[in-house]
Amino acid sequence: MIPLSHDRYCDEILTQNDALRAVLTGADLTATVPTCPDWTLRELAVHVGGAHRWVGEIVRTRAAEEVPEETVPGFEGPDGDGPAALDAWLAEGAADTVAALREAGPDAEVWSWAWERRAAFWARRITHEVAVHRADAALAAGVPYTVDADVAADTIEEWLRIVSFSQDDGDPEAAELRGGGRSLHLHATDVPGAEWLIEFGEERFTWRHAHGKATVALRAPLTDLMLVFNRRLEPTSPRVEVLGDAALLDFWLARSSFG
Questions:
Q1: Around Cβ 251, how many Cβ atoms within 10 Å?
Q2: Rounded to whole angstroms, how far apart are CA atoms 150 and 226?
Q3: Staple 104 to which of 61, 108, 206, 257, CB 3.0 to 4.6 Å?
Q4: Which CATH architecture has domain 169-255?
Q5: What whole-number distance in Å separates Cα of residue 215 and Cα of residue 39?
Q6: Cβ(257)–Cβ(179) under 8 Å?
């Protein structure tokens, strides 16, 4: 599977943000988010909107180094406390960030914390940041969550790349994701070809698209597969099936959480 196009990511940022706003409309914004228990729904929304503005500032200014969050206009949230102000603030931030990404194009050089210092990195990253936090919001609000198959698959791909980068960068938890002879198979039951075989080498892990016997297999519809992989759905859920050594799946999830 290959990443989506830059234009598609830009479109998807708006799509995911609009879907998040729809979840928030009429919801109890003081409700605790079960998958992010330090946040209320409103605080989750402010986190997402702040991320939009931070990324927009990085791309718009072609930043060569990290931009301090406190220097980003509007980062802290809307001026008003009401839901209408929050909704307008979320819409404005996403629109401004997408405008900056479109104007820059995918190859514009900008700072990032990761392996790729181009605007393309941020278009992909903010797409999945919103898609996963929208799942948090949907769970808190008690409403259904769906996401397009290609977005769900790319969320898994990007997360594998982030965990791999973190391992190479010396993250102590990601460093433990190694040890020859063990493997993890992700198998989407509703999308042909949506499979990942994660293999633990002596020094690091690798992954590829393949169907094969593994130490543990996680089988589920693609959206649920993505949610488990991002720790938004428990692997014990009746919506998924775990075959083999479930402790290895737990081991992976615990060491790919980054807090």
A1: 18
A2: 11
A3: 108
A4: 2-Layer Sandwich (3.30)
A5: 36
A6: no
- Return the number of other C-beta atoms located less than 10 Å from residue 100's C-beta: 24
Alpha carbons within 13 angstroms on the beta-carbon side of residue 188 total: 22
Mean pLDDT of 187-205: 95
Q: Is the pLDDT of residue 4 over 60?
A: yes
Between CA 116 and CA 172 the distance in angstroms is: 22
Q: How far apart are CA 194 and CA 219, in angstroms?
A: 11
pLDDT at 2 over 80: no
Superfamily of domain covering 6-145? dinb family like domain (1.20.120.450)
Band of residue 257 on the pLDDT scale cut at 50, 70, 90: confident
Domain boundaries of the chain, sorted by first residue = 6-145, 169-255
What tokens does 160 get?
């594998």
Instruction: Fill in the amino acid letter for 68.
Output: P
- Mean pLDDT across the chain: 96
Alpha carbon of 233 to those of 68, 71, 86, 91, 130: distances in Å?
33, 35, 27, 28, 17
**What pLDDT, on a 0 to 100 scale, did the predictor assign at position 1?**
65
